[in-house]
Amino acid sequence: MSSAIQLVIFDIAGTLIEDHDEVTDSFLAALRNNGIHVNDDEIKEWKGGSKREVIGHFVARQFGSCRIGPLIEQTYSGFRFLIEKRYAEGGVLPIIGAAETLRWLRERQIKIATTTGFYRELRDTILRAAGWEHTFDANVCADDVLHGRPAPDMIRRAMELTGISDPAQVVSVGDTPLDLQSATAANVKAAVGVLTGRHTRERLERESHSGLLATVAGLPQLLASKYLS
After folding, report:
1. Which residues contact 108 (CB under 8 A, 6 or more apart)?
2. Within its chain, how far is the Cα of 100 from the centroid?
3. pLDDT tens, 118-163?
4. Which pLDDT tens digit goes with each residue over 54-101?
5. SS3 assignment for the chain
6. What is the pTM of this model?
7. How far apart are CA 146 and CA 88, in angstroms?
8. Distance, CA of 197 to CA of 62 (rounded, Å)
């Protein structure tokens, strides 16, 4: 089977669109409003994960099984309200060069997909606001799989939806440690990190990766030099 790149999968927030701490701030507020103790650094490490799963982790850590179901749902509902309010107020700003990178891949008949820890309605709202609702061959969110990141489920689902069976034909791009961990677990050809999220180069360097880019705008050069020549 050919190992030529056939599919590039992108995270959304912090990778394709600007991250102004909408997720972190909304998460911290929702958790603390419901009496769940967590600090900023802990939330950063969970960025990119399934939002419901992350809430469940912190609820179980503090309360065990007591009240776990209702408290998770109450906190998750609070998070949804807060994150939707933040995006409505601040808008959705694509990373400079992201649209050009997507166009470059399209011109080379390389399929493109997104994965995100967001729920389906918010993902669709963001893609629509960015003008990308019809851009991708597949869009996968945490609602669509059994396990969110760092499990490889979303990447594998994107492969299934785009008809790609060989992970050696796939590149995954993201801004968080969980993005890179998920890509490594999926055994893709290249796990690429970008520095437009809320994690430092030093933090991302601790994860297995195929390259770290300042922004997604640098992806065509990386692919052309290492994977498409």
Report:
1. 228
2. 19
3. 999 999 999 999 999 999 999 999 999 999 999 999 999 999 999 9
4. 888 888 888 876 657 889 999 999 999 999 998 888 789 999 999 999
5. CCCCCCEEEEECECCCECCCCHHHHHHHHHHHHCCCCCCHHHHHHCCCCCHHHHHHHHHHHHHCCCCHHHHHHHHHHHHHHHHHHHHHHHCCCECCCHHHHHHHHHHCCCEEEEEECCCHHHHHHHHHHHCCCCCCCEEEEHHHCCCCCCCCHHHHHHHHHHCCCCHHHEEEEECCHHHHHHHHHCCCCEEEEECCCCCCHHHHHCCCCCEEECCHHHHHHHHHHHCCC
6. 0.90
7. 29
8. 28
What does the block give as tokens for 8?
Answer: 């590039």
Residue with tokens 């960015």: 130
